[in-house]
């Protein structure tokens, strides 16, 4: 809630006036203003401008600063009566200036009563929606900028505690009914005993069933002696409603009773007859043809708004998209209304939350995708365009079942609409794209299901059954147009007696079925057999080429299963009916045959060479067993565990023999002993081979190390070894010519070096301690002893003292 404290406009005459003289002059101006208000003659004088009305100087300055000069029709008739304190029922076309017709009297009446902040609440303005309340508050701030009143905005979505702190200081409150009643019940410092004026904008909406109990509770808190103003484009005239508000001799002010229509003359109104499944196609085609326009699209529920917005946003029609509904937070709703007001080319999907009173500048088109609940709602919707004598166009989408009834209701309200047709050349279909998106995006599919249910519910709850005929709507086709695989189940519809049938006794069901006759039973059975599941409906989709990869593979696999032995595709039952083939069936026991189908003849039980067989499924029990994975495992051939040899050929890891083949090899004990002996011999041979390989590896390592010691490259290493065999000399061991003495000495030296390295490796490593700075090395023992002896001798002369110091310093 933001208070408004208008700044005082100080006139040059009264700057240096003494306070008593200034107060006397203000009293004289106020008396003169009251006298001019009392002299108003509504029947004889017709006011054309705001300057001709008896208004206070702060109000006149605020109107001039806001560029309001000329009075509209509703303002000419309503403002003079309200200034004199008369209760008003004001009805005027949308965009005719009803807001100023009640804001100016509010400011003037409080000004003439010298209302201050200490006097408390003086005027209460009720609005059905938050957006309209915000708009009224902004207009009040503009024209009341030079007054000293404090004004507040009380709507939902804001901090209740902050509003409580300021509520007691407010003179004018603009609020929604629910939030106002909450403060009346919970805020102790809020008092309404001093209220002077009560204003209901869009009174017919506030007085309907949605706000009836809330408004009754608010009126009970208000004083009986007050001035009440009711304004709307379609005003209520019920005596009961007026009695509830305690109106005193109200004046009915209307400016379109004698007019040919309740809508502006600058508004071009048309309607098109489009079946329910084609509505989104038509809307998409319309948006693609009007990318440089400002469009407002009305729908019946917030879930529809969200689904259409998300779907169209993914498909990118080429125009900025916005969406607004009552489930959004207040900050988001305010941002969206602001964006749509300032943009030139955009499309806003909205519910009836923006249908009343909101002033969006320069709206080119108003599209009513869903039929309005009554003619009054239609008038308010189309009133968002063609405001203040500007041009505008409105299009109403009607299902063939809604055409006759809705046109009749509009004619009763003097609203004439012309029928137009859609150009088929520009008509585009988006059903396939919606199906693809809903299949790939589960969240969008969920939104589509909620949108379908909310639309059906909105039609179901309508009172006018001559217009809304739910039984005549093609709901199955409508769900397909949203991209859904099937129509979601509607639990609130009458005739959905699945639960009652489930809980009914069997005897009662049998008696009921027998009384209906054989013909009805046959029809019911045929209908039941033709019932399609949601997966069947998925296979009916025409755009199979846009499926996801995993689903396309699934389709190909199913298609392969439907190819029979001759290689022809079974087209008799279409793509939906997929025959179940049980191929490569192994030997089946008699018990399995009894459960899963007829027994297979003995001539086909040849073991592994059984051909393809199709089991007949003639009962629900067998069909259920065939659908079970556990039951199908009995019919499928068992897998084999294979290993691959060095050549890459597969072979079974376990090869089982029959009993006769096993007995042919001898007794079991002898076969066991023979097997153990063979395995032991195999292990010994493997052990010998492993030792030879280890010896060769060590020899190769030693040769590389000898070559490294001599500094020779690996490829040119010369092996020189000392012979160790007996009975031969060294020269014979090196070949035919022997070796020289130098070579022998070098070999012995290498061998001794290797022996020392092996000894060092066998000794444990000794930890080396780091030498301190004051310790001497192992070679400096004599020097350290000498320095110690020198230090033991006492110096006798100065030269000796210097020598000792030099020795200590190193």
UniProtKB/TrEMBL annotation:
Belongs to the DEAD box helicase family. Its EC number is 3.6.4.13. Its main location: nucleus. One of its GO terms (cellular component) is nucleolus. One of its GO terms (biological process) is rRNA processing. Transmembrane segments: none annotated. This is ATP-dependent RNA helicase. InterPro entries: DEAD/DEAH_box_helicase_dom, Helicase_ATP-bd, Helicase_C-like, P-loop_NTPase, RNA-helicase_DEAD-box_CS, SPB4-like_CTE. Residues 14-27, 679-693, 703-717, 745-766 have a biased composition (Basic and acidic residues). RNA helicase. Keywords: ATP-binding, Helicase, Hydrolase, Nucleotide-binding, Nucleus, Ribosome biogenesis, RNA-binding, rRNA processing. The lineage of its organism: Eukaryota, Fungi, Dikarya, Ascomycota, Pezizomycotina. It is found in: Nucleus, Nucleolus. It catalyses: ATP + H2O = ADP + phosphate + H(+). Residues 279-438 form the Helicase C-terminal domain. It comes from Cladonia borealis.
